[in-house]
Amino acid sequence: MNILDNIVILVLSVSLWTGRKQLREEDLKLADGSELPPQKLASLGSKRVMDPAALAPFSTFKRRAERTVLAVGTRFLGGYAVPVEKLNDLMAELDVIKGEYNTARINFLSEYDQAVQDWKTQNPGWEKVIASAVESLEYVEKQLAFRVQTFNINPVEGHETGLETEINGLADQLRHEVRQQARLTWDSSFKGKLEAGQKTVRPIRAMLEKIEGLVFLEPCLNELVTGIKSTIAGLPKTGPIKGGYFAALCGVIHLLGNIPEAREIAENLPVEDEPADEAVEEPETSTESSEIEIIPDLLYVPQFEEAPAEWF
Questions:
Q1: Where are the beta strands (DSSP E) in the chain?
Q2: Phi and psi torsions of 195, nearest 5°
Q3: Strand, coil or helix: what is 188?
Q4: Residues 95 and 103: beta-carbon distance below 8 Å
Q5: 101 burial class (0-12, 13-18, 19+ CB within 10 angstroms)?
Q6: 3-state class (DSSP) for residue 48
Q7: Do 237 and 279 form a contact (C-beta atoms < 8 A)?
Q8: Long-range contact list for 157-165, CB < 8 A, 24+ apart?
Q9: What is the rounded CA–CA span in Å between residue 288 and residue 278?
């Protein structure tokens, strides 16, 4: 339960409006004698009342906010467990995203009526179908919101068991998320290759920073982080990473993601006996394109596999 002293619970609620309404029978142009299946057998689906491109930025802001929280925290009780020492910096980053979200929201609402009219123009012959499903501006305004809540939790005396069970699962949740990110990194930057660029090290460093911030969940992970940081420190600082250096990097990915293919490359590529490049390391300028996208489902509670032995 001492873990509760080291974490803050953060609930991120970024609500979206889909721009969809249920498709009705009267919206269809049916030939005489056409027959639709009964509702207990099939539903008609939905119709768009707005160009999806106009709403796409809000989904992007939501994913960006989720990635930002997951970079330092791990899913817990429908929200995220965030290290206390990381909270202020995290909230500052979320405030920036929230500001951009609200600016986009104001712009979207100011152009709402015109966007509906443009959608009608793009779909001639279906203007009435669109018009019958258009929501009021006030309704749409309430649907678009960006909220962040933070709080501490403590068990109710005499009923600690349930919370203890959830807390005991946090280390497994951390491993699960790191494995997921490691495998995404493998698929996007390593699979089928025999060398990697300098940017491929960035997501690995991000994984290590996340583990370090939450290492109080399982202190023995310190040894893993120390070993991987030592390996990364010995890599060339400029140019492609190949040969024995690439093998070492694949070994790191295997440890983080338990990926058999990475282990095979790590074991079979020869280790080159040459010093690492002493050049100055390139600045770590993070961009959207280099981020690993993870779209969490806050209602999903994963069934974890047994933690791989390589973590210890």
A1: 7-15, 20-22, 46-48, 74-76, 79-83, 145-151, 195-196, 241-242
A2: -160, 165
A3: helix
A4: no
A5: buried
A6: strand
A7: yes
A8: 160/1, 163/1, 164/1
A9: 28
As a whole number of angstroms, the distance between CA 166 and CA 285 comes to 36
Coil/strand/helix, residue 225: helix
| pLDDT tens digits for range 21-72 | 776 766 666 555 566 666 556 656 777 888 889 999 999 999 999 999 999 9
Among 98, 87, 194, CA closest to 146? 98
Confidence of residue 267 (pLDDT cuts 50, 70, 90): confident
Cα torsion through 305, 222, 294, 90, rounded to 10 = 140
pTM score: 0.75
Half-sphere exposure of 148 (CA within 13 A, CB side): 22
How far are the Cα atoms of 14, 79, 308, 310 from residue 152, in angstroms, in the given order? 21, 12, 31, 33
- Angle between helices 52-70 and 87-110 in degrees, nearest 10: 170
Give the largest CA-CA distance in the chain. Answer: 80
Q: How does DSSP assign 93-108, residue by residue? A: HHHHHHHHHHHHHHHH
The two tokens of residue 7 are 């974490």
Q: Can you read off the two tokens belonging to residue 220?
A: 């023995």
List Cβ neighbours of 152 (8 Å cut-off, separation of 6 or more): 4, 8, 9
